[in-house]
Specification:
The chain is an all-alpha fold and 292 residues long. Among the domains are: 130 residues, no CATH class; 70 residues. The protein contains five helices and no strands. Helix 2 crosses helix 3, helix 3 crosses helix 4 and helix 4 packs antiparallel against helix 5. The longest helix is centred in the middle third of the chain and has 194 residues.
Length: 292
C-alpha cells in the first residue's frame, strides 16, 4: 500500500451500517450477490472486517425487511405477478438464509479449528518455551563451565608459552653447541681424510710389495718343489740301496753262521786227534759286518 492510499484511508470517515446496506441493496438490485469485496468496490473504501460485520447484519435483517414490504403493491406490475415475485423473493431469501447459515456454520467450524490450532500451537509453544528454558539453563551452566575451563586453559596457555620460551632458549643454546660440534666434526673429517689418503697410499705400497713377495714366494715354492722332487728321488734311491744292503747282509750272516759251524766241528775233531797232530791252522777271518 502506497503512502497516498494510507493517507486517504486515514482521512476517510468510518463506514456505517447504512452505507453497507445501501451498497448491498444496489448490488442485489443489479442481480449480484453482495459479498465483502463487491460491497467494498461499490463503496470504494472500508475495512473488510467492518464490512463483514454490517453485511452479516444485512443478511439477517433482509427477510424481515421483505416480509414487512410483502403487502406493498407494485404499481407497474399486476397483483398476481407481484405475488409470484414476492414468493420467489421469499424463496430466494430463505435459500440465502440457509446459505448464510451454512457459511456461518463453516465459519464457526473454521474459527473452532483455528482456536484448536491456536490452543495446540500455544501448547506446543509452552512446551517449546519450557524446552528452551531448560536449554537456556543448560547453556548457562555450560557457559559457566566453559568460562571456568577457559580460565584454566588461559593459565595453561601462559604456562605453555613460558615453557616454549624456555625451550626456545635451550634450543638456541643447543644450536650453538651443535654448530661447534659440526665445526669439530668437519675438522675431524678433514684430518681423517688426510689420514685415510696416507693409509690408502701405504696400502697401495704394501699391496705392491705383497705382490712382489707373492711372486718371490711362488718362485721359491717352485724351487722348493723341484728340490723336494730331487730329495724324494734320492730318498727312493737310498731306500733301494738300503734294501739291497740288507739283503746282502742277510746272505753274509748266513755264510758266517755256516763257517762258524764248520769251525766248531773242526775244533771238536782236533780235540779227539793224537797229540802229535799237525799244527792248527788259524781260523778263517770273519768278515766285518760294519763294512758290509
Amino acid at each position: 500500500m502506497s503512502a497516498e492510499t494510507t493517507d486517504l484511508a486515514r482521512r476517510a470517515p468510518r463506514i456505517s451500517a447504512e452505507d453497507v446496506f445501501a451498497a448491498a441493496d444496489t448490488l442485489l438490485g443489479e442481480g449480484h450477490k453482495p459479498t465483502i469485496d463487491r460491497v467494498r468496490m461499490q463503496l470504494g473504501r472500508g475495512s473488510p472486517n467492518t464490512i463483514n460485520e454490517h453485511l452479516d447484519r444485512w443478511w439477517r435483517e433482509l427477510g424481515t425487511r421483505f416480509r414487512e414490504s410483502a403487502g406493498l403493491a407494485l404499481p407497474s406490475v399486476p397483483e398476481s405477478i407481484s405475488s409470484r415475485l414476492i414468493e420467489l423473493w421469499n424463496l430466494a431469501l430463505r435459500e440465502s438464509q440457509q446459505a448464510l447459515q451454512t457459511q456461518l456454520a463453516e465459519r464457526e467450524a473454521a474459527v473452532l479449528a483455528r482456536e484448536m490450532a491456536v490452543a495446540e500451537r500455544e501448547t506446543a509453544l509452552d512446551g517449546r518455551f519450557e524446552a528452551n528454558l531448560e536449554a537456556l539453563q543448560l547453556a548457562q551452566d555450560q557457559l559457566v563451565h566453559a568460562n571456568e575451563r577457559a580460565r584454566v586453559l588461559e593459565a595453561t596457555l601462559q604456562q605453555t608459552r613460558s615453557d616454549l620460551e624456555q625451550r626456545d632458549r635451550q634450543a638456541s643454546a643447543l644450536g650453538e653447541e651443535l654448530a661447534a660440534l659440526r665445526r669439530q666434526a668437519e675438522a675431524v673429517l678433514a684430518q681423517h681424510g688426510a689420514e685415510r689418503t696416507r693409509l690408502n697410499e701405504r696400502y697401495d705400497a704394501l699391496q705392491d710389495r705383497s705382490a712382489l713377495d707373492i711372486d718371490r714366494l711362488q718362485l721359491a715354492q717352485k724351487e722348493d718343489k723341484k728340490h723336494l722332487k730331487e730329495v724324494r728321488a734320492q730318498l727312493e734311491r737310498a731306500v733301494s740301496e738300503r734294501d739291497r744292503v740288507g739283503t746282502e747282509l742277510t746272505r753274509l750272516e748266513t755264510e758266517l753262521a755256516t763257517i762258524r759251524g764248520q769251525n766248531e766241528r773242526l775244533l771238536a775233531a782236533s780235540a779227539r786227534a793224537p797229540a802229535k797232530s799237525p799244527a792248527r791252522r788259524p781260523p778263517p777271518a770273519t768278515p766285518d759286518r760294519s763294512t758290509c
